[in-house]
Write a structure and sequence with these properties.
267 residues; Spore Coat Polysaccharide Biosynthesis Protein SpsA, Chain A; 8-stranded mixed sheet
């Protein structure tokens, strides 16, 4: 039976309204190993991480914690750095990379275990992008990815438009396999087989104020002159679809609280 490691980077789970707690809660029966890299949390994130670490270790699973503060000055290259750092520490046969605002359906865990035992190099997962609330998903338009390489054999180091790996001397080697001058995760490589696994991306289930702040922060990584900065936020709900299927079990209490707080979104 092949082993599976989770590569996870994030910071300020509670301030950023991330899903790190839920990722680790649902994954205790899926992952043989976790590598978490903290980007400089100032809230209670690390207290929560250490509780999960104890739980994983009690089940004879590996759990490693590292620190790598996020630097806006590195812009989009910071994403490459964090992912390479996490991947380089994993010992398992396969690596699954999760962003801090993503979750998987628990009912698909058995499929993931089946995939890694087929011994292919890489698999792409479909992504559902939730928009404003938990009942709507964004249509796939420019700069939004619908399939993304998420599960790879250890040693390949393939993410987004970059290929990176650690060579025998311990140095980071990189090939730039696509133009990432824009916020572009669209490339899906010929070697990454499309799977039926679905990633739930909740990163834009936010208040309008937080969405505006997040948008401007992201844009500054790619346009440091501030030319794309917005001063008002419009959700543009004309380009969304209603979502009527099931969410992961682990997030259902959070969804209930969101519906109570933002009842106007669910009428």
């Amino acid at each position: 039976m092949k082993t599976l490691g989770l590569a996870l980077y994030g910071n300020n789970n509670y301030l950023n309204e991330y899903c790190i707690d839920e990722i680790l809660t649902q994954g205790i029966n899926l992952y043989d190993e976790v590598v978490f890299i903290d980007g400089g949390s100032i809230d209670e994130t690390m207290d929560m991480i250490n509780i999960h670490k104890d739980n994983y270790l009690s089940k004879n699973k590996k759990f490693k914690i590292y620190k790598l503060p996020w630097r806006d000055s590195f812009r989009k290259n910071m994403m490459l750095l964090t992912r390479t750092a996490a991947m380089s520490q994993i010992e398992s046969d396969y690596i699954l990379y999760m962003d801090a605002d993503e979750l998987l359906l628990e009912s698909q865990f058995s499929k993931i275990k089946s995939l890694i035992n087929l011994d292919n190099d890489a698999y792409s997962f479909q992504t559902l992008h939730f928009w404003r609330d938990y009942n709507h998903i964004k249509d796939y338009v420019d700069n939004w990815y619908n399939y993304r390489p998420k599960l790879v054999k250890n040693g390949l180091g393939i993410w987004d438009g970059y290929q990176s790996w650690i060579d025998k001397t311990g140095s980071i080697q990189r090939n730039y396999t696509s133009d990432l001058t824009t916020w572009d995760y669209r490339p899906v490589y010929s070697f990454a087989e499309k799977s039926s696994i679905v990633t739930f991306h909740y990163g834009w289930v936010l208040s309008s104020e937080r969405a505006l702040e997040k948008y401007n922060s992201i844009e500054l990584r790619h346009h440091p002159d501030g030319s794309t900065k917005k001063i008002e936020w419009n959700w543009g709900m004309e380009s969304v679809k209603e979502f009527k299927a099931n969410h992961p079990e682990v997030i259902k209490e959070k969804i209930k609280r969101h519906k109570e707080k933002y009842s106007q979104y669910y009428k």
